[in-house]
Amino acid sequence: MAGEGEAARPLLEEKPDVYFDGCPGCAMDRRKAENPGIPYGLFFHMWIINLVTCLPVSSLFPFLYFMIRDLGIAKRVEDIGFYAGFVGASYMLGRALTSIFWGILADRIGRKPIIVITTFSSLVFNTLFGLSMNYWMAISTRFLLGFLNGSLGTIRAYAVEVSRPEHHTIGLSLVNTSWAIALIIGPAIGGYLAQPTEKFPNLFSADSLFGRFPYFLPCLFISIICFIVLISYIWLPETLHTHKVHKKKDDQCRESLITYLSDSKEFDKQCSTSTKNKGLLTNWPLMSSIVLYCITCFDDMAYSEIFSLWAESDKKYGGLSFSSEDVGNVLVVTGASILLYQTFIYPHIVKVLGLINSSRVATILSMVLLFTYPPMANLSRPWLSIVINIASMLKSCSIATIVTCSFILQNNSVPQDQRATANGIATMLMSLFKAFAPAGAGIVFSWAQKHQHASIFPGDQMVFFLLDIVVLFELIWTFKPFLDIPKQSSSS
């Protein structure tokens, strides 16, 4: 039995005996067999792809408060949070509706076409979002941006398939790192580049395009990055096996296994195992890790929405009176900390504590941190800046720990021919949770501002208390019988 801190050995990852000419999956398997080292080039390419496709997800957070105000949909300041929540939710709702479809399609036509479609759609609809002339245009472009985003689950499957089993932890950790960095760099771009005529009047005049559309510049900047990365896909290899095995009842099972097996008895044994695992929804090690992932993503999305709204709201509402640039500064520091943490600290923590105990420690730390946010409004600078940066770094690293651990558990619970579909299911469910998170967070935040001066649990305290309840569910889920560890790892 492998230790809890070790990545479970995925199904069907034995060294193949047969390679088929013209099959990209076989070409990748041969490449891994001949080059046992870490595929740094492919990992970096994958990291950049995931980064740029995730940038639009949260780039709007620093300026969303001001964008809703300028679009004129909110009649009162206290209602801005209510309408802002639905803009954030529209992206996740769109992604939830199609994530399984993209996963199934990636298992049929390949990983690369799905990644290309996603990047191109991000380029188009993120640009249109920056040109939104009314609230409903903003909602619809964000919805379509999510609807056509099929890369997240596909990239996770790709990270496993371009590397040998002993390097899967690094690959999945890099996926989480790029995702986490994107959720920080995106808001930083939004915070620095939104409303450029006010921040850089010498470069952008009020009569220019950027004066008419004050939130277009950050969207345009991200779209340009997407275009550059789209060109790089010329050198991106495919990993899906495309050879066929005829006259067999279970074609999908045997397509995957014929590459790996030549002995008939071992073939039947492995084919039976693959067929047994066909029911992804009844694969409890997979589904239980997906649930943990979903709860954590709900926490992350709700926190991201509330943090920006709370930091930018006036102190009379319990906020910090930060500008979008102030929020961007905090998120840049947080992003750098996540990169360093995931690269140098996280692997050692998991090695010592294991996947499950690392997640438990992270949830407990997160719960403690959330209680410290409301009193921060009473601090003056520079202490406020120091404390809020430390809290933001620790909170984000806690979330990154839990998400990466759940990634490893998910991808090691299924064979290759189910991996993209399994990740599609995870992405769909996660997107549903994330769709509810900003909408719910916006409604709660709007309510909190109207009850800021309540005698029991003032509004700002109630908001962070409710976030703590969500984190408590994360902690509970890391225990049996809720979380089930794949048989390849020891249970907690």
TrEMBL record:
SUPFAM superfamilies linked: MFS general substrate transporter
Location of the Major facilitator superfamily (MFS) profile domain: 42-486
Compartment list: Membrane
Main localization of the protein described in the UniProt heading: membrane
Pfam families named in the record: MFS_1 (PF07690)
InterPro entries, per the entry: MFS, MFS_dom, MFS_trans_sf
One Gene Ontology cellular component: membrane
Superkingdom of the organism of origin: Eukaryota
Transmembrane residue ranges: 40-68, 80-102, 114-137, 172-195, 215-236, 383-409, 429-449, 461-479
Membrane-topology descriptor: Multi-pass membrane protein
Keyword tags: Membrane, Transmembrane, Transmembrane helix, Transport
PANTHER family: MAJOR FACILITATOR SUPERFAMILY (MFS) PROFILE DOMAIN-CONTAINING PROTEIN (PTHR23504:SF97), MAJOR FACILITATOR SUPERFAMILY DOMAIN-CONTAINING PROTEIN 10 (PTHR23504)
Stated name of the protein: Major facilitator superfamily (MFS) profile domain-containing protein
UniProt organism field: Urochloa decumbens
Organism lineage string: Eukaryota, Viridiplantae, Streptophyta, Embryophyta, Tracheophyta
